[in-house]
Amino acid sequence: SEDSTPQTESTPPTREIDAVVVGAGFAGLHMLYRLRKLGLSVRVYEAGDGIGGTWYSNRYPGARVDVKSMYYNYSFDPELEQEWEWSEKLPPQPELLRYIEHVADRFDLRKDVQLRTRITAAVYDESTARWQLTTDAGEVVSARFAIMATGCLSAAKLVEVPGIETFRGRSFHTGSWPAEKVDFTGRRVAVIGTGSSGVQVIPLVAEQAEQLTVFQRTANYVLPAGNHPMDPDYQREIKSRYREVRKANRESGFGIAQPEATKGALEVSEDERNAFYHRVWTDKNSELVSMLVGFTDTLADEASNETAAQFIRDRIGEIVTDPAVAQLLQPDGFFGVKRPCLGTNYYETFNRPNVRLVDVAAAPLTAITESGIATADESFEFDDIIYATGYDAVTGALDAIDIRGRDGASLREKWADGPVTYLGLAVAGFPNLFTITGPGSPSVLSNMMVSIEQHVDWVADAIDALRSKGVTTMEAETDAEREWTRHVDEVGDMTLYPKVDSWYVGSNVPGKPRVMYAYIGGVGPYREKCDQVAADDYEGFTLT
Ligand code: N01
């Protein structure tokens, strides 16, 4: 069904297809696979020069996922999941990239992916009920469906001080790391930021650099990653019961099945509680979520949360030899509601003579200079600056596109006080536009692979259903959207999440509305809700 209108001087050629997918990461490629199977003509536009999304661009030393490899992969093809062999508990970025490239080749996906092409605008044309998408090369494509697979952590954030462009050394953001190997031997290096990216990159750069200075604004809770080579027996065992494993993950809270907690942290004795924390801390098979879900109330009750927080602070105090440095590294906020990190030799790194920790909460950054970094009370000279400063999360990549629905209404403007969505999948006034792992869905509060596949399947099934019903458009209803967004907030308010500054609530980006950007109700209940909406003839959507 693909054709082109003839080119004239005044109008650019318009490609007419069934669906445009924006982004060729794990979400976009799976969406392409599903829609192609339905017989749709699909084109995927990708701004980067390779496929893989996050796992293409996060090439910094130490980048690896912090969900077990056996759970962080596609489940849609039984042969693929049986044949692919993972080499480590937590696969490093190059292995994840090899995996997605293998998937793309195996299912012949690349021919419908256009790289180095950024979608800059998406405008809904009511007269034709089609989306017109414009690329940065000026190409216009017309599609019935527009599917945003733009990623939750893809719009980089730097620092809000002047002078970034004046620095004469090398600058890197962890999320757009160069393809070629970067050597830090003999160099004076700065890392700004101590979130998951900083925690991964710092120990490896410290091993190379002559001097490493880490600028920390907020200390984070870093649990031992316990990464290790894959045990072949374990891999075989999981593969032998993959359907059951997938089902358990899909029905869980965070997309990683865990033993169900039955007691609050303060309902057990101190010995029992600490024995549990100790087990999680030392067991190399622990998950990032193990410490979060061992008790029923760690994420909701301040006193319970404090028991886990103090356990971790005590461990930091044991590892870090300089008491003043240890104290700076000990977080004082709640544990787990700002994204906890997994680290390998993270705290140990601060015992190295070539590593210095600078507290930019006490003396904030004031400028990036030609030769380095200035804070309120010191200036530093560097050869290299690594920005591990995070992202305008969840909505940033969507806001970067000028998306206009009915009557030319702008999505950015509609979301000026915070995103409003139905199920994190669709928006009233924007028919046939879908957001994969969009705001108000579990997304970043889950194993992304579980959430990506659930959304991709739901959208593909919906499009299939529309076709068999002879329906042209599907649009979220305003009431359904309002009710869902209220529910996302309400469930968030039952937890400690809104009480802590983090990118989960948008507070890392100045001026960004402070709301819950992800749904904390759990992937299991969320899936049930989505399935029920579909079963009830797409309740809350208008089909025309
Ligand atoms: O970004 P972040 P990230 N002055 O926003 C600091 C996923 N991920 O790229 O906390 C000084 O967490 C900022 O300080 P503060 C994962 O979901 C996963 O590390 O705002 N400091 C913070 O320390 C993760 O949560 C993996 O006070 C400034 C840091 O920069 C998400 O991506 C690996 C500053 C940013 O931390 C984002 O992680 C990597 C300023 N002006 C990422 N601005 C794995 O799976 C920012 N900071 C392992």
TrEMBL record:
Entry-linked Gene3D superfamilies: FAD/NAD(P)-binding domain (3.50.50.60)
Record SUPFAM superfamilies: FAD/NAD(P)-binding domain
UniProt xrefs under InterPro entries: FAD-binding_Monooxygenases, FAD/NAD-bd_sf, Flavin_mOase-like
GO molecular function, one term: NADP binding
Cofactor: FAD
Annotated Pfam families: FMO-like (PF00743)
Keyword Oxidoreductase annotated: yes
EC number: 1.14.13.92
Enzyme category, top tier: oxidoreductase
Keywords: FAD, Flavoprotein, Monooxygenase, NADP, Oxidoreductase
Superkingdom in the source lineage: Bacteria
PANTHER family recorded: L-ORNITHINE N(5)-MONOOXYGENASE-RELATED (PTHR43098:SF3)
Homology family: Belongs to the FAD-binding monooxygenase family.
Protein name from the UniProt record: Phenylacetone monooxygenase
